[in-house]
Write a structure and sequence with these properties.
Elements lengths: L2 E3 L3 H7 L4 H4 L63 E2 L8 E5 L8 H15 L4 E5 L2 E4 L1 E8 L14 E15 L5 E15 L2 E2 L4 H33 L3 E5 L5 E5 L3 H14 L2 E7 L4 E6 L22 E10 L2 E8 L2 E2 L2 H20 L1
Parallel strand pairs: 1-6
Antiparallel strand pairs: 2-3, 3-8, 4-5, 5-7, 6-7, 7-8, 8-9, 10-11, 11-15, 12-13, 13-14, 14-15, 15-16
Helix pairs in contact: 3-4, 5-6
């Protein structure tokens, strides 16, 4: 069996003299562990024995091997923290699992975005893994070694020497994507978990394995969040792009690559910066009513215009914005008739540059 000695914060703390194992052990006084059962109540001859109420009878149990005193593991359970935008956990969840919904910055596939984050975290931690199938990773077997302070006794009481604790395990990571492709889940399991103290196999509290699962899953959530925030920041730095394309019904449109809420004010500013005068607007219908005149035109023109000529017909137009998935489609009309593709091509580069510039401000 190949072992990888995992360098986690737990191990670092141990080497620094503050054993993580100590934080798992109860502290304080443990005189109670040596208390012996009291003898049967002896009554003086002139008293009657009271009746015993069975409601409070303590059942007989075999506790010879049960953890008591410092052997009780008091590790606090670590929670899955869905801190990233679009991440969430279910209140009824019994496994170490998180769900990711696609949000800005993830591109076209939330599945691929999360998959890259998984492999980034594993490689950053130096954990080798095999891809069992699409969305199913199985890591190598790893080993966590810690020294248990013998003072006070961990597996007994008094006079014990330090002991070497070794935990071996591997991670299984499973990704499942919904059929609509907008949501993917990630589950982390601990596989083949064993614990030995000085070479002898001993039981381990379930919370230890659960915490190892949550630790890795939280690291992946943080990486997804980091990548998503970084992508959004980069998109903002580059500005919002616009494409000259066709709608599903074959209409020539300008497609602003942002949602309607963001595109609506940007289009307003972009139109004015390239020579269109916004004369009226109707946000309910997503329409800007504009007019266009070539630079330096007009009977009493004084001064100079700060936009380049578009070489289109002067007159009145309507720019109608409509949600198109996560983007915004812009259709242009003159006299209730859609303008030609040649008209859009004449305007496109200036409009695209203006939207990009305004989105950076």
């Amino acid at each position: 069996m190949k072992l990888s000695y995992l360098a986690l914060a737990l191990t670092a703390a141990t080497l620094a003299g503050c054993s993580a194992a100590d934080r798992e052990r109860a502290s304080g006084g443990f005189d109670y562990v040596n208390i012996q059962p009291t003898d049967t109540l002896t009554l003086p001859g002139d008293l009657e024995r009271p009746e015993r109420d069975s409601d409070y009878a303590v059942p007989q149990t075999d506790i010879k091997n049960a953890p008591i005193g410092q052997r009780v593991n008091i590790t606090a359970p670590q929670q899955v923290r869905p801190l990233g935008l679009g991440s969430r956990v279910l209140e009824t969840e019994t496994e170490t699992r998180v769900y990711f919904d696609i949000v800005d910055g993830m591109g076209d596939s939330v599945t691929e975005f999360v998959k890259e984050a998984v492999e980034t975290v594993l490689e950053r931690r130096g954990i080798s893994y095999d891809v069992q199938s699409d969305g199913h990773w199985l890591t190598e077997t790893m080993s966590l070694q810690q020294t248990l302070d013998g003072e006070g006794g961990f597996l007994g009481f008094g006079g014990e020497e330090d002991k070497l604790q070794e935990r071996t395990f591997r991670y299984e990571i499973i990704q499942e994507t919904e059929s609509h492709k907008r949501t993917t889940s990630l589950r982390v399991n601990i596989d083949n978990f064993t614990q030995k103290v000085d070479g002898r196999t001993v039981d381990v509290a379930p919370v230890v394995g659960n915490n190892l699962e949550a630790d890795l899953l939280n690291a992946i959530i943080s990486e997804v969040n980091r990548k998503q925030q970084q992508a959004v920041a980069q998109l903002k730095a580059e500005g919002i792009d616009t494409q000259l394309t066709q709608s599903d019904s074959g209409e020539d449109i300008l497609l602003v690559e942002d949602n309607f809420e963001q595109a609506w004010p940007l289009v307003n500013l972009a139109l004015q910066s390239i020579g269109f005068e916004v004369e009226d607007l109707n946000r309910e219908t997503g329409t800007y009513f504009v007019s266009y005149s070539e630079p330096d035109s007009g009977f009493l023109f004084i001064g100079g215009d700060d936009y380049e000529p578009l070489n289109i017909e002067e007159g009145e137009y309507e720019f109608r914005l409509l949600e198109s998935g996560e983007n915004t489609a812009v259709r242009v009309y003159q006299d209730d008739t859609m303008v030609s593709q040649q008209w859009l091509q004449a305007v496109y580069e200036n409009f695209r540059a203006a939207v990009k510039q305004q989105s950076k401000l």
